Fold each of these.
Amino acid sequence: AGNELKEPPNGLVCVTPKLQRLNVKDNKKITSLDLRYLPKFLRYLDYSGCGIKHITFSSESRPCFASSPNVIQHALCDHLKHRHVKFLFLNDFFLNGNRELENIILGKEDDKEMLYFPSLKYLHLHENNLLQLPPHIGYQKNLETLDISDNKNLKQLPKELGNLKIYKRLQSLRKDNLILDGIDKEASLPVVLNILRSIGTKCDYNRRFKLALVGYQGRGKTTLLKTLQSKSINDILSTEGIDINKWELIKPDDKSQKIEFEAWDFAGQQDYYPTHHCFLSPRSVYLLVFRACDRQKGISELDGWLKSLEMMAPGCPVLLVGTHIDEIEQESLQNLAQEILQKYHPDKGPFPMIADICFITCKPGLIASNKEQVKSLKNAIFEVASHLHVGSTSNQVTYKPKFSDKHANAFINQKVPVIYQDLEKRIVSTAKDMKRNNQPPFVNFQTMWDKIGSELFKDKDLLQDGLEYLHHLGLVLNFETTRLRDIYFLDPQWLSKSMAILIRDHHIHPSPEIQEKPTLKQSEKEENSNKAFLLKLLDTGIVNAGELKSFLHNKNQQLCDWIDTYVELLERFEVVLRIDNDQILVPSFLPDRHIYT
């Protein structure tokens, strides 16, 4: 580095074939680089700050510098060290600061997927004079960092670069001081990749979000949702598991704007808590409902929910909704709001940002006189959704209330292929058919492609994009664990009820009457395998796999056929824990104390 070399060092490929690091930076007189004559085992290559104008991959042969002096002048090198066309180990490539470099090559010209550097992780191309990037860059599956800053004549990015969204390795794209066609200078990495992926595809703006209502039982979540939807609130029953339905919100202050929500109403009973966190995810608007009239008790019960939301959906803001305000004074509501904001500030613990606190009553007869409360809450929901931004990764969400809702990174400004709507319809239809035929509504990716994807998309990567979009909406669920990564659940409500089958059965709910050690009279119940299973679960919290399979067979034939996947899913979210290959622990049914000795 930093010498007066006029050309790259000759003969390295011959005399140092196992060289791993080569630093030739700041040799201003080097004007060309032939990739073919680099040592094949290089891991680090630095040609930054040189005077390179041309990069080639030569097809000509050169003398072998490993041969004897008498042979060098007469014979062309023909050994294998010169025949390699891939540098399988190169991770770091520095080409920045070559002010006259207009083009680079990363692979064979007539084959986009024929890469010279398939293991490349860090590519530094800033401060050159690049006119374009080669399409091969979109097939660098291991690329983690790409810096193209300060290439003043670079106006477009190749659409192939959007392929890196699929590989999920790219963490940093530096594009400082660039003016790119169709890409805002403030656009985050996922936004840029999404724009490039959608080139040539019919798209529409994303106006759909997941809305989740959480909180303890009896706080008015279901009543609140129906009030927002302008539905009847008579004869409302407690939610079992999760209810999911669509809700179109028209902004009260601007009727021309609307957002469609997939509204998830979570059951508030304690028995369901172990399964709830399976369905909490980023890219959602959360309403945490509590009873304002409970005062300090109501404030305290927010703690667990806020911590769970921050853990499972980091970055998502939360709207707090205090109900039953007809039972508390207006002045007390103001004090309550101030106390909540002070106690649960993100600086004071693992809490999410509280976007707003709204108070409302949903009692029949009072709603008409409290329309302003409903309007205020609708506006708050709309504002939160409008200011959710794409973070630095596709799964990261940031809340930017001070930014314009026209910002490049706002979710509502992201375009989504229209064909995803067709994918959604076919998935819903497929799920109904499977349940009708007594089949569990889940498939692996290959089956998804064969049944649905191959008719809609030209390649599997596009189907993967569509499934990821539907997953974030909660319409299709996929869990990234070793055994479940390839499985797609097509009906979230079915999955919720299936996961809760161990804890929602009325036989399992402990009652005050069960205070004594089981007697011989219970042998009558043991004649029924289901009752015996449930009693054992209540007694110890432990069952074996065979008993669980028998129980599921009696309760739901579909579950019996996928017992291993079912248990893996419950394990994934710690609803159950395996003690060994046979025994399974259900923590929610461990006794709080020994009732008998």
Note: Confidence is low (pLDDT under 50) at residues 71-76, 505-527, 593-597.
Amino acid sequence: SSLDHCHHLVSCWTGLDLISVILWFIHRIVLTMAFRGSLCSPFRCPGPQTCEISISFHPVFELIFKLAIANAFSAHNMADFQVQTVATTPFKDQKPGTSGLRKRVKVFREGYYLHNFVQSVFNALPSKELAGATLVVGGDGRFWNKEAIQIIIKMAAGNGVGKLIIGQNGVFSTPAVSAIIRARNAYGGIILTASHNPGGEDNDFGIKYNMSNGGPAPESVTNAIYDYTVKITEFKTADFADVDLSKIAVHQYKNFIVEVIDSVDDYLNLLRTIFDFDALKQLLGRPDFKFIYDSMNGVTGPYCERIFVKELGAPADSTFRSVPLPDFGGAHPDPNLTYAEELVEKVLHSDNYEFGAASDGDGDRNMVLGKRFFVTPSDSVAVIAANASAVPYFKGNLKGVSRSMPTGAALDRVAQKLNLEFFEVPTGWKFFGNLMDAGRIQVCGEESFGTGSDHIREKDGIWAVLCWLSILASRNAPGKPMVTVEQIVKDHWATYGRNFFTRYDYENCETEGANKMMDLLKGLLASPDIKGKKLGNYTVATADDFEYTDPIDGSVSKNQGIRFIFSDGSRLIFRLSGTGSSGATIRIYIDQYEPSVEKHNQDTQAALKDLIQVALEVSQIEKFTGRNAPTVIT
């Protein structure tokens, strides 16, 4: 008979019991007698713990071999563990914000702070669905990431989860987690990140739960999680040793598996189905196109080196700050004109690069720059939507678009002109998820440097950059003069008009003063004569505290930001951010439409000067915060 069964198995040799050894040698002896020299290659043991076996054998003896291996697993790899129930007391400050729970590292390390929140996540999920389920777990590599993952592994085992898929070294970008949940049909995922917030022992940590669609948990789930945090009395965990996350491997326990996988593979495979990599290679290979990417010592470093350098052929020096660091190199990993100062100097203040980009700590945000030209996030999503045909994934498939309420209204103009369905939603990526799942939108974005599509259910920094490179590739035929980022945006303005947009951030303000300012504005909303009231040279057409009713499930989200909309379509918006870990961050958004091409080249701050002054005066922000200037201007 032919030897046609080849099995490659990796199992643990240490700890095989006597029965396993006897079964193994019976199998070897029978093979020797039956095939007289047609033995398999001998098993090779590269180390004391793992034994790689490569063997060919007759089907008659396959069952014997499988029994030996199965018995070996049950004797060692599938070792049982004890579930422990540990008493705890609630913390009163574990209400998730717009993107999970974010606090200082020292808060998460206090007592059972993390344990309580993780157990509350498990408690909020239906127990019958959680039992035996697969979850994806990973983080952006910030300080305390590895230690937190070990806690989550043991608590998942203690709560009956069947399998965890974890990135090598505990690292996944947030977009990659969403992609893996969807590709592997996981039940959900736990992401350890504080996104664009600073890292390190004295800075921020965060955690959030994502659903089976790959997107952030909706408010119904985050509210349930919070309800459990205020009444929790115990949590469950398991008593096994820490799992080695440094190597790609499968760790098998009885009724529980931890699979450590390459952090990039699944995400890269998805991108290959979306973009024309050959066209992108051709663009990056042009001698007159120089490209630079700043990973800000966040999680995207390995992704960028793999995608842009190894896959698309960009020079090795096309990426910088590409080593993920627990404290992001002491920098603030937020891709904007203030914190990406080195990139800004390289691209905006020199002629050395045609294109520059940056992403944040966990890889979901992006900033796009052309030579001496900044693309606002509001313009970026509008240009991507208007040029969606440059991306193979979207050809004939763009039916709807959406933006967050504070985002500049450039996308509205594209939707109107291209006859696309349009939605305005509250801040928070979770609000796009239902629309995507229902097939109502394919492209969406928010002014806080977040852009994405329905390929996953998170915003995606690298995806946005690849979209821009695809647009550039489609506009630049080989051998022709370079069509620049600036030209593409100005052509867009000429077609759709320009929305001048800026955002003023006042970070880490005293909470009391910030709340008093918001109360003042709410009082103005309640004024019976607010409609038609003159604020500076602007007449109020409507003013409200934005409320959103989800068109898919009917859920209502209230108090999402104070809006003043003027008779010329200009807007002022005031919000307290939900992504900070301490104090209060006040954001003021100023948006004004300009149809005249002759006025499109104005400086943004100059064009919005009068409207900015109205915002500062009506809010009395200096009085309430003591600040005479914002921390960041976008």
Note: The longest strand covers residues 498-509.
Amino acid sequence: MMYVLSLLVLSCTSVYSQETFGGAYRPPQPAGGLHFSESFHSSTIEDSKWVTSKAKKKDDDDNEVKYDGLWVLEEPVEQKLPGDKGLVLKSRARLHAIAAPLDRVFHFHDQPLIVQYEVTFQKGIDCGGAYIKLLSHSNQLDLTQFHDTTPFSIMFGPDKCGEDDKLHFIFRHRNPVTGLYEEKHAKKPDVDLRDYYTDHKPHLYTLYLHPDNNYEILIDQSVVSKGSLLKDMTPPVTPPREIEDPADTKPNEWDDRIHIPDPTVQKPHDWDEDAPPQIPDPVAVRPPGWLAEEQPFIPDPDSEKPDDWEEEMDGEWEAPKIPNPACKDAVGCGKWTPPLVSNPAHKGKWKPPVIANPNYQGVWKARVIPNPGYFEDPHPFRMDPIGAVGLELWSLTPDLLFDNFLVCSEKSLADRWTAESWGQKQAAYDADAPGVVLKLFAATEKRPWLWGVYVFTVALPVVLIISFCWPDKRFGPPDQDYFYKKTDDPQLDDSVDPEEGSKSSAQGTKAMGSKDNNGTKTDDIKRPSKADLEVKDQVQSRRGRS
């Protein structure tokens, strides 16, 4: 029944989505003030502002490898909005590199940086990246030679290989003392990222970087990580004030052994280190019926040397061996050897016991000196300006789709772009999504313990309803006919055996006139009052009508 209802809900939802989102995709309209926007509504890459790299890089064996992976503009495999295209990485296990210049260079002054784009792992992903690089602006920047060592200011986006799910946020920081650049990595998000790589749906990745050095990382407009460039990067932006002196070395006479062999103990004279751990069993004897003269395997008498066998080339021919027929019913054949048993004389290599080292000086540590490379940079946000957006990737799984890139500094512009691009796409996906009930059932595939929560959630209201609608007779209101007080006295509608009843009546009559030792009358059983008899008659009449 549930299966039929599920199919009905899905079919109705599908019809609704076709009626509601059957029109063509409406690309978002870039507004003024954007540094970069791209929704890929061009017909081909050649007609767009994107430049395919023709560079080469050196692999691990120092061989030059071309960036020959194929990029195309095409619609998604699972198309929800006709006409919606994206940039697709098409080649498997090849180097891909493509970039586009910003419309306006972004300078890190007093305005925040907002970067976002969509990624769809249309076939999932086994090992590969889908991150972007915001390339540093310079007069030497040549997008046709974009490769792995091209300087970037920020690298941001998802990356996965095997069970290692990552969401990169890396920025290159310039050391003001040495002038060298060092990559700073943000902490890993605490959320589970697996579904984003496996559900084959588009996901929106957003980075907010503020002039006060704080950052936020969002997926599908939900914050998954946030922190500070000064406190939450590895290695930290600010180096330590003191470091260990690299010129300081441990003295040769420094003894850092906690325990040492006891020098006063000598190896016993009867200790045999050469005694083997096992020896032949001295009490074992050869079983009767053992054919010591026969070999377990003999040359096959029916085998003949092949006609094309050449001893000069193939060596001397030997017939293949077969099990000896004479040993078929025997206990064993060939040379008999007794089984091995543990050697009581075996003691192994002798080692003296260990004692606390009386000369122990502790763990040696180099002396600490002021760090000559120490500096303070209170504004790591002020990094090199950005001149282009680039994708330099390798993936075992093809058909990675990228869409709706945005670089700006005003949140209102980003919200508008998101509503016109991501919002439109999500509305189409939500229309085809299963209902709440089906989502709850789907959640149990990864979390079977949810069945217990569902059963408890449904059973609790049912038990409460039953308790209120059909109460126990013992606890109802006293003015109802089903109410009985908790007592040991006989009730009006108790069933009584005739013989037992006559005895009880006689005993009751006798008891009513009896006296105790003090001469006081006892009244063990009370006679029913007239009101009780009337109630009894009403109950019996109701039962007769029912």
Note: The first strand starts at residue 36 and ends at 38.
